[in-house]
Design goal:
It is built from eight helices and twelve strands. By secondary structure, the protein is α+β, with helices and mostly antiparallel strands. Bound molecules: ligand 2P0.
Length: 313
């Protein structure tokens, strides 16, 4: 019998960018994310004679998934598997498809192979595939921090419902993967030491803002975090320039909306999409403005979602 699991993508409001040396795929700095209910990966696993992978219906080889399977098999009894995975959003374009993908895969394998992992162990398993996947094990607001580097639920999705409008400016996969980009920034950006030195204070401040449901403080910290991360990217050699012209126009529009009373702030990841986080009552207005910006191909809207789970049969 095949086993199917579902996981949602997440976006970090406090970013990490850079990994520790050594095994385990641990970030250098803490992060804090929201899980997006409308961006979903559905993954089915089933016994097979040899590993086989289908992404969005097409047979593929994926070095990252093959590496993760080899790594997991050192610790867990996982036989050869046919894996079939579907995203209902563009893959590898800065919408954290690896987060939902590895969270769904770890959850499906845990159930299918009877590993009986705790949430924390499953989060660590997902992290070994992709760092941000550790957070998609949980819903709502999720922290990923030392010493365990396992996703930890900070606030349930219905405790502080926020909305996210994603402005897609380029749906194709990015030219430089996060893994490669992070290593490059750590090795070459002169700002990397300052990034590390300020991370813990930023993390504590953001956890406090979430605890107090302080939207203005959350937005201020989130915008500072993504801009600081893009400063690392821009100062890497060769530079990592993920933005498009339309990305900058979206950021400008979000500032104007805020000046006009909208409760909204921006964040971006390793891609050209702009994510506007807002209170649900302002989502329609934010989406109407962003979708009319030249270069915005389409918009997506999401509320906060739950953690990774096995699908009902
Ligand atoms: C984050 N990102 O905190 C940061 C901000 C993107 C920008 O973690 O190398 O695909 O697979 O562990 O999880 C995206 O990187 O990286 C990421 P790998 P991942 O969400």
């Amino acid at each position: 019998m095949p086993t199917t699991a579902i996981a949602h993508s997440n976006i970090a409001l406090l970013k990490y960018w850079g990994k520790q040396d050594g095994p385990g795929n641990r970030p250098d700095t803490p992060s804090l994310s929201i899980t997006l209910g409308a961006l979903t990966t559905t993954t089915t696993v089933e016994e097979a004679d040899a590993d086989a992978l289908q992404l969005d219906g097409r047979p593929v080889h994926d070095a990252k998934i093959e590496r993760a399977l080899a790594d997991w098999r050192r610790d867990y009894p996982i036989g050869p598997l046919a894996i079939s995975s579907r995203n209902d959003f563009p893959t590898a374009a800065g919408l954290a498809s690896s987060a939902s993908g590895f969270a769904a895969l770890a959850t499906a394998i845990d159930a299918h192979c009877g590993l009986r992992l705790s949430d924390g162990e499953r989060s660590a398993m997902a992290r070994r595939g992709s760092g941000s996947a550790a957070r998609s094990i949980h819903g709502g607001f999720v922290a990923l921090a030392a010493p365990d580097w396992r996703g930890e639920a900070v606030l349930a999705p219905d405790a502080w419902p926020l909305a996210v409008v994603v402005a897609i400016t380029a749906p194709e996969p990015k030219a430089v993967s996060s893994t490669v980009g992070m290593d490059r920034s750590k090795a070459t950006s002169p700002y990397y030491p300052a990034w590390g030195a300020t991370a813990d204070a930023d993390f504590e401040a953001m956890k406090a803002a979430v605890g107090q449901r302080d939207f203005d403080a959350l937005g201020e910290l989130a915008e500072a975090s993504f801009l600081k991360m893009h400063a690392l990217m821009l100062s890497s050699r060769p530079a990592l320039i993920y933005w498009r012209g339309a990305s900058v126009e979206c950021l400008r529009a979000i500032r104007e909306l805020r000046a006009d009373g909208c409760r909204v702030f921006a964040t971006m990841d390793a891609g050209p999409q702009v994510k506007a986080v807002c209170v649900p009552d302002d989502a329609e207005r934010v989406e109407a403005v962003l979708k009319d910006i030249p270069g915005v191909v389409r918009t997506l809207r999401s509320g906060l979602g739950g953690g990774a789970r096995v699908a009902d049969s």
